[in-house]
Design a protein that fits this description.
2 copies of one chain form a homodimer.
Chain A lengths: L5 E3 L9 E4 L1 H10 L7 E5 L5 E10 L2 E11 L7 E5 L4 H13 L4 E6 L11 H15 L6 E2 L3 E2 H6 L6 E5 L18 E5 L7 H9 L3 E4 L8 H15 L5
Parallel strand pairs in A: 1-3, 6-7, 6-11, 7-8, 7-9, 10-11, 10-12
Antiparallel strand pairs in A: 2-5, 3-4, 4-5
Helix pairs in contact in A: 2-3, 2-6
Chain lengths: ~240, ~240
Amino acid sequence: MASKVRLYVDHPLGEGQTVPLGRDQANYLFAVMRLPVGTVLSLINGRDGEWDAEVVEANKRAGVLRCLAQTRPLQLPPDVWLLFAPIKKERTAFIVEKATELGAAKIIPVQTDFTQSANRARQDKLQAHAVEATEQCGGTFVPEVEPLRTLANMLADWPSDRHLLFCDETLLEDPHEMADLPDGPWAIVIGPEGGFSNTEREALRNHRQSHPISLGPRILRADTAAVAALTLWQREKGDWA
Amino acid sequence: MASKVRLYVDHPLGEGQTVPLGRDQANYLFAVMRLPVGTVLSLINGRDGEWDAEVVEANKRAGVLRCLAQTRPLQLPPDVWLLFAPIKKERTAFIVEKATELGAAKIIPVQTDFTQSANRARQDKLQAHAVEATEQCGGTFVPEVEPLRTLANMLADWPSDRHLLFCDETLLEDPHEMADLPDGPWAIVIGPEGGFSNTEREALRNHRQSHPISLGPRILRADTAAVAALTLWQREKGDWA
């Protein structure tokens, strides 16, 4: 019993809507997976929810699907951003995958004082990881991966209504209960391997909208910290409640 | 400014104790990293805490270290086991790494009805991942990775004092607050990709010591679920409190 193929397309979805496929997707569906005309699969585009669609034309270089019916409405994640310092390629991809699964609304790579410049991941590659993770995890929303910015620039231009959950690796105990944190838009900030510089830590601690939390007594890798912080936030302030 | 090398050895550590190195470690330290005699590094063995030790003999095939002073005592994690169904090789290694970082006391791979048999990871390889993660995360305790057992066998022979945190992927809302869970030894159970079979789910739900929890409205991969569940448990019942 094969599970239904779930595919992201950058095309409007709606009843009776036809959806042309590009060469890569056509090759995957009709040459690799050998799906015949009439096969029903799931489509998402990040905006119109999830749709059943049937294959109406199938060849290795192109193909056409037609939407049948919506199977799930668009489900937006809570308004939480993840800011993280890019680490090694594989682990950066992992952070994007996990942030997508865990329901981040936006993913923002930030350059910190201790970010290795070799770790500048390509935005289009990271966005593709977010799309793939959405296909896999049954989601209908794809978080946007923004271009790399410096942490200093981000903080200088910080939106006045957005709270900052600052995962401070030097804190062994938590200064407050997660449940006591204010409502509203949030962003979670995870440091690079090697932590934040003293200047950055002071800036984050002293930021007007910043709420520092501890992630326990052990040293966590940046990718672990991202999953842990998103989990705690979703459970207390997000849509796991 | 290089950070100090941190090395696991299977040898007693204590003041003045000499520690012979095997060929692989000697090669790494003296041929690859080119550490000279007199270099001070950190040793752990999972039992005696963390020790500063200096290099007293260095050649590519062997070497000797001598312990100087203890830098950290042994810090045991809380008594929580992680039971998980092996998934693809890379992600299984990842689960072992994350469970070590997040302070699991024991890691137990379990065969479930939907576990792919191709995913039987070698115990010695998984144990090596736990050692490496301990070296990296600054820990002094290495969780034991047990041999693969079937979930049915484990449940039939379940220790009468150990609670079971059952991460039920079919639950969208949580039946209880984490804070209300009882004290005592715990185990966290994560399902395979594809979830538990109906028989397993019933057995887990009806188990006398079982406490089901939800991990939110999105489908999480098994590796994400492991990190999320350990985080929630550590924060409420473990040593993050």
